[in-house]
Design brief:
The chain is mainly α. The protein contains 10 helices and no strands. The protein is elongated, with a radius of gyration of 18 Å. The mean pLDDT is 93.
């Protein structure tokens, strides 16, 4: 229970721009295994909030958090690999981490995984999966993903769009999608 109170203090401190206080609250929690604190600490290092920007430390904390199932940490790891921040750019690794975040419900990971499928970067090009993930992300509130989905539809047949929508519906209903 004290974890929750300390975590809330850390979040409030960060939101108020009191990054040293946030660091003091979050770091002990992250070291004790709080996935949420680990992700927040990774975010501080990713952006350089109150600490020197350090993508290697960001990756360390995001990885620890992601290994515990924290969806946004999976997304951030994908972003690090996609953009080559602190690591050699690697779209295969980006797709791996995006997929983990996407399957756990992170709308940004879903959108970016859809984009990788649309261009065949790190995965085999597949407009059905590109549409599916973009559609799922749009349902989860991403306006950018809705635009991607709409653009994809311009190059797809009605049958392909229908199949992609079926895959998205199956994902929302708890079925494992027929991905590669």
């Amino acid at each position: 229970q004290s974890w929750g109170a300390d975590l809330q203090k850390g979040i409030q401190s960060a939101q108020s721009g009191k990054f040293q206080e946030a660091l003091n609250e979050l770091q002990p929690l992250a070291l004790r295994g709080s996935a949420h604190a680990q992700s927040l600490l990774g975010e501080m290092y990713f952006r350089g909030d109150g600490v020197k920007q350090n993508y290697l430390l960001a990756r360390k904390w995001f990885r620890r958090s992601a290994q515990q199932g924290w969806a946004s940490a999976n997304y951030k790891l994908g972003l690090l690999y996609r953009k080559g921040l602190g690591v050699k750019p690697n779209n295969v690794s980006a797709a791996f981490w995006y997929r983990a975040g996407a399957e756990r419900g992170d709308a940004d990971a879903q959108k970016d995984l859809g984009i990788l499928y649309a261009f065949g970067e790190g995965v085999e090009r597949n407009l059905l999966f590109a549409h599916m993930w973009s559609n799922i992300s749009a349902r989860n509130g991403s306006n950018a993903a809705a635009k991607v989905r709409d653009e994809l539809e311009k190059g797809m047949s009605d049958d392909e769009i229908g199949e992609a929508k079926t895959l998205a519906n199956q994902f929302h209903n708890g079925y494992q999608y027929a991905g590669d």
